[in-house]
Structure formats: structure tokens, C-alpha cells
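Before drawing any conclusions, I needed to go through one protein's amino acid sequence and its C-alpha cells, quoted below without any editing.
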Amino acid sequence: MIKLFPTIEEVFIDNFDGNSKHFLPIASIDLAEIDKSFKGQVHIVYFNNDPYCKESYEYFNEFCDESKVSFDIIDGKYNFKTDLGYFKTNSDWVQWLDKGRISYNKNSLKNAQEQNIDTSETIRNLGGAPEWTQNDEWPINQQGEKLIFICQIWSGDFVSDYCEEEIFLFYDKANQMVVQIHQVD
């Protein structure tokens, strides 16, 4: 099952106020959609971080950098693998954040009203292989194993902020975490 526009409480384990300032939940995906033996769910979230704010770099680590973010999965919910300082922004970037949130809210409301949106065109390559926009950035876990590809989305199908990007979702079953790779066309 795929659920579009889950609530922040359905996606994150805690810090709902802090996470809701930065993350816009796009979809929750039952892992059994990928492999019947898998249990639980993973989520795709959108965020718009200021690429010109160098102060956020101090929060980069092996799990979160300029093109990827990672989350631990705890009871089917996420815990961000770095500090929310990752989202430091310059004042001139606020207009893009506001624009994204407004369009996300409109799309979320539209989905709630229609409740029959075909996800096969927006949640792409489910359980298949990624179609990279740039270079292959398939993540590898700490054991040296490739992560399991879940799906990819074009953020512009859900949020219109002129900062659209392709988002690739990967699952690390061994370490109970996910990695999102973000690529701009």
C-alpha cells in the first residue's frame, strides 16, 4: 500500500514541530510492496535546503550531505541522522521555502478531496531500478552492501517551488535506515 501525504506524526518518531518546519511528507510505502518478506514501511519526504548557505555544512556527515539525507527507522518512523541545523538558510531563500510549503499544502488538500490519485505515474520504478538524472549514486551500507532501491519521484509532482529534483529512496534492511539521494536535472 502507498499512502500519499502522510502526516508528520506518521513519518517521524518525535520532534514533530522541528521536523514539520523542514520536511514535507510525500508518501508512505509498505515494504511488502517491494518484497513480501519485508515488514514495516518507509517514507519519502521533501525538503528544500538552501544550497548557498555554507553554515549548514557543519551539520554534514557520512549520512547527510548536499545530495543525500538519511534516517534511522524506529518502529516504522524516522529519526533524522543529523541535527536540524542542516537546514540553516539565508534570509533570501525564505521565499522559496514559503512557496514550496504553500504548493505542498494545496496538493495535499487536493489529494484529500480526490483520494484516487494514480500513484503509478508519480511513485516510479517501485522495486525496480533507478533511472539516474545525473551519475549513479547507489548507496552502500557500513557492511559494504548495496542498499535496496525502493522508488523514485520527481518532487515537482508534489511541490512547486522552482527547486524541483529527482528523489531516489533506498532501504538498508541490515541497519534499519533509509537514504534519499537528491539529483537536479
